Amino acid sequence: MSRTRTALLAAMALVAGATGSAIAAVPGDAGAAAVPCTVDYDVQNQWDTGFTASVTVTNHGAAKSSWAVKWTYAGNQKVTSGWNARITQSGASVTAANESYNATLASGGSATFGFQGSYTGTNAVPATFTLDGVTCNVDDGGTDPTDPTDPTDPEDPPTQGDRVDNPYDGAKVYVNPEWSANAAAEPGGDAIADQPTGVWMDRTAAIEGPNGKMGLRDHLDEALRQKGSGELVFQVVIYNLPGRDCAALASNGELGPTEIDRYKTEYIDPIAEILSDPKYASLRIVTVVEIDSLPNLVTNVSPRPTATPNCDTMKANGNYVKGVGYALNKLGDVPNVYNYVDAGHHGWLGWDDNFGPSAELFKQAATAEGATVADVHGFIANTANYSALKEDHFSIGDSVGGKSVRESKWVSWNRYVDELSYAQALREKLVSLGFDPKTGMLIDTSRNGWGGANRPTGPGATTDVDTYVDGGRYDRRYNTGNWCNQSGAGLGERPQASPEPGIDAYVWIKPPGESDGSSKAIDNDEGKGFDRMCDPTYTGNPRNDNNMSGALGDAPVSGHWFSAQFQELLKNAYPPVS
């Protein structure tokens, strides 16, 4: 027996029917142009604990090169499998994004996909559907979305505050031509030279463009060119806090620990002014806000054995919290900016005494210097790091010989074994602290593929828990605390939108082939120091449990092109580069 409900647009009322579907019926005196899109949700079959449904979306606006339909269940329905769309679910919210073969959705065209789901109790048809953030099945008053002067024209700039739930859905992402040229110049690099990467504002000079390189406006102008008539995400890394990277000398910045006023007036304010230029209002601008900063105030301060004097200073003066809050406040005022705050990675914050306190610190920073949680669109994990996305051959609940995986030397009592599980759990924790339930996560997959000939194809032997974990783990670092130019690493999942529940996108924020730091001291005018963690002969410190650094040799200073690393990443890519 199937459950039935029909959504009738006429008289703006919902009317129960017997068709087993929810459709938009346009009144005879209103053209299809009055409705930007229609969705027909048809429950085809239903039994006590499950159902199958077919969904047809019809686009009445401009043609699309990709699309995503979203809805939210009122009950406890869960999608268990699907076809003709990539369907993900986070809580009650469902996203169905196109497959490669049905990405094009012409004006007046339709796409149909289906799925199987489970439920208990009632199985009510969702009341609201959106196509790329626009509500379907609702009369907008008769405006014509094909009229170029019409404010609902998809090609018009977004209205003030009109952010979409996930900026990556239905959008291309900016390809940095400078990185692309470096990649294309490498043997085999053409295969990935068209991948989108982040643009790093790692010092004040980067805003205008140092030494003949592109500045922020240059990149934004190029982004408009790449955008064309569709949607485009532009990713920019905000990375210049006073006393930056207090526990990692390789990426120290230009501003001293007390120079918070310079950070505000000489760095954030000029960036905010450029991003707020109406010329760029049609771009979806994603900011990655101050990587490797806030978690240091939890993990690398006294009385912990991992403490550094620099991190103690930054905790005492509060300038990390003030700087992040100020950036969120100023950049969050720009209606087409989506702020994502850096949230470390599982190998840094996955332990109980790090996880909760870090989440609470993120909340503190998000409400400092005039910022509110509404200025935060999401968080990003694994930025410029190497943690495996998924570990398939062991899980946190496994045990060997009476010992939990958590007791292994590799996991070392961490609650998480990979980035996906960490990011999804952190998202839930942040929502519980007052962040928007729609908060999304990004995961930087630029260098966490760990493929090649040494990639395990099954679990390790059950001789003991260490053999089991070490034999099956993809991540082949000596320790999850190793972060500099890691030997054996590979390109990870290619950038994609909505890959998993709660995850807005896999992204390449760290451009593959750009060094994490020099393997020996090199004089430079960028304020970047030498960190022994980038020296392949270094035997470690408490932050990596005194393991070898695992770094490649002959590396340039951070941010500079490192051909040997690029070739290593290409060789060990997973999925492989074809």
Automatic annotation (TrEMBL):
Active site positions: 245, 292, 516
UniProt cross-references to Gene3D superfamilies, sorted A to Z: 1, 4-beta cellobiohydrolase (3.20.20.40), 2.60.40.290
Secretion signal, residue range per the UniProt entry: 1-24
InterPro entries for the chain: Beta_cellobiohydrolase (IPR016288), Beta_cellobiohydrolase_sf (IPR036434), CBD2 (IPR001919), CBM2/CBM3_carb-bd_dom_sf (IPR008965), CBM2_carb-bd_dom_sf (IPR012291), Glyco_hydro_6_CS (IPR001524), TAT_signal (IPR006311)
Top-level taxon in the UniProt lineage: Bacteria
Record-listed E.C. numbers: 3.2.1.-
Keywords: Carbohydrate metabolism, Cellulose degradation, Disulfide bond, Glycosidase, Hydrolase, Polysaccharide degradation, Signal
PROSITE patterns: CBM2, GLYCOSYL_HYDROL_F6_1, TAT
Residues engaged in binding substrate: 200, 202, 345, 348, 385, 483, 510, 514
Protein family per UniProt: Belongs to the glycosyl hydrolase family 6.
Protein name according to UniProt: Glucanase
